[in-house]
Amino acid sequence: MKVKTILSYGLIAGLVTGASAVYASSDHSATNYNADLCNLLDPSSWVYQQHCMGGFSEDSAHIELAASGRSANIITQQVLLPTVKPVLFTEGAKKATLSRTVGPALRYESARFDASGADPEADIYGGTIGGAMDINNNMTVGVMVPYDYMDFSDSAIDTVNQTGMMLYAQYNIPLAGGRYNIGILGNTQYFYSDIEYQSDDDGLNTVGFGGGINFTANYDKFITSLAMTYQYNHDDGEIGDNELFKTGANVAYLPNDKIALNGFAVWTADLTDYNSADDHENYWDVGLELNYAFTETWNLGLGYKKVLDLDNFDSDQVYIGALWKF
Length: 326
Description:
The protein is mainly beta. It has one domain: Autotransporter beta-domain (Lipocalin), CATH 2.40.128. Helix content is 12%, strand content 57%. A twelve-stranded antiparallel beta barrel has the order 3-4-5-6-7-8-9-10-11-12-13-14. Strands 1-2 form a two-stranded antiparallel sheet. A hairpin with a 4-residue loop joins strand 13 and strand 14 (313-325). It is globular and about 60 Å long. The relative contact order is 0.19.
């Protein structure tokens, strides 16, 4: 994929035809960066990432914002390893033979990169609306529709509009009278990313699937969940095939029937085969969430999440979500 951008850079030192030369221009379109010139540049440099590659760059930091990372996060943290809701809300739902759940969630994320020659940042405003329905006492199916608007600064990418649809099904196996539960999940998704560069725009299609398993232990005041998942995605840009393995835990404390306090940590192993081994990193998502049940059918959640252990990426996210069961 060829990307056309107009940016001003200082000097780029390179070795051309056996001699040392200085390349400087106010019009650095991607068509000027042929394979020979790109081979002379440091793959970790900002110039290489923006002129020798298309779409999101090939590294774990950009995967976290790309559709493949976004879909894996949604499946892991909202479906496979969801935070615990208050007793008033969960027990009220059990009164129905088969329950249905719908609700929106809004988020703001501040993302910061550390690239050679620039320090780009992104303000991300997004949301997800989803619904789930019990088919029987063991099977639940659901749909998630996320949307994100990313506003970049100091970057060849100007803005990104990213949306998609995710379908999933989970089979639950209760144990010991319901004190424990094992869930087996399968999912599929499609995302479209409209990437606007400084002087051009491009579209990126991403399709994928995955599966996972979780285990929950309910000790009344304390509820603990463990989960792991494998997610595969393919896009028609430079990333191509992407593979993520995630495993994590959520611990909840319920001081009364209306409140649930959650703490969670998710470890991601990026199994993607990038051009450079240095772009392959493992990282953590950690966070806290407070849920308050207004009634047996309405719940409100407030949360904070941070990304850790990525060398060239730092992120802080706050979010709010509501759930309605009927």
